[in-house]
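Table S4 entry, lytic cellulose monooxygenase (C4-dehydrogenating).
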Amino acid sequence: MTQKLTSLLVTALTVATGVIGHGHVNNIVINGAYYQGYDPTLFPYEPNPPIVVGWTASDTDNGFVAPDAYQSPDIICHRNATNARGHASVMAGSSVLIQWVPIPWPHPGPVLDYLANCNGDCETVDKTTLEFFKIDGIGLISGGNPGRWASDVLIGNNGTWVVQIPADLETGNYVLRHELIALHSAGSVDGAQNYPQCFNLAVTGTGSLQPTGVLGTKLYQESDPGILFNIYTSPLTYTIPGPTVVSGLPSSVTQRSSTATATSIATVPGSVSTGGTSSKTTTVPRSTSSATTRRSSSSAITTSAPAGPSQTLYGQCGGSGYSGPTICASPAVCSTLNPYYAQCLTR
């Protein structure tokens, strides 16, 4: 029964047009400059969406990739992803701040970051040939049932995550693959939820590091211990899925919120040198938090909350220790996924 309900969850979230608590990366910030990401809830409906550094994807529902798609191209940069048409420039050793919307992110799980050398322009690379190497990865931090996770740190920093480009990375064009994996239903087969997001970066520096990578379709298996995993026990020991972090690199850097002081636009190959973005930078102030408010308010896919003490579609409605609404807004019903989590689903 649990597996049947989990399958229903995956199907419903894949086709739904209103998802509460799932999301996408709105923007990245590099050296104080704000770069717009791809907004799957807005750009598909615009006649001329802007050229951005984030890869295009068809997750108009702010949804996820399920484990049964790990060997399909969807796991690389999200569902039906196509190349971003521009890139951002960054020096090796610099940090990239990644901003998720909407926040908070309600499901415990790891945060992972990878790079892949495009060996040419990332705007035209075949994504199925990209070989990703992991540059950071944080999972369970402490406790259990469910404990404190990397996703909790992201929530505590206004939905942001900071990743550092390796200081000795070889100059070149790279795809940054950033990913959250939600584990609230991962105790059942195909219950984990992957949210991969990709961005084009032109990295400059003097280093020679060029790690061996793994094809995106070979990063994970459905039965990996960090994918098929019950978080509702204690104590917990968690194995972060995917390849190990490149030797010599930290598993993560200090996480912090940041404020963008200027707005930059994506560089199109051939338009300017990859040595910098100053020619593209304006002086429009933009804080990371205000960007979150702007994109959250403009999103048209959020399900409206019903009147009274009822839960919205896909919201939590039960489980051990839960004290919120237990009645779902019609036509959803409260479906128990496991003893610790029940969710409002349509039949």
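The CA atoms of residues 195 and 277 lie 28 Å apart.
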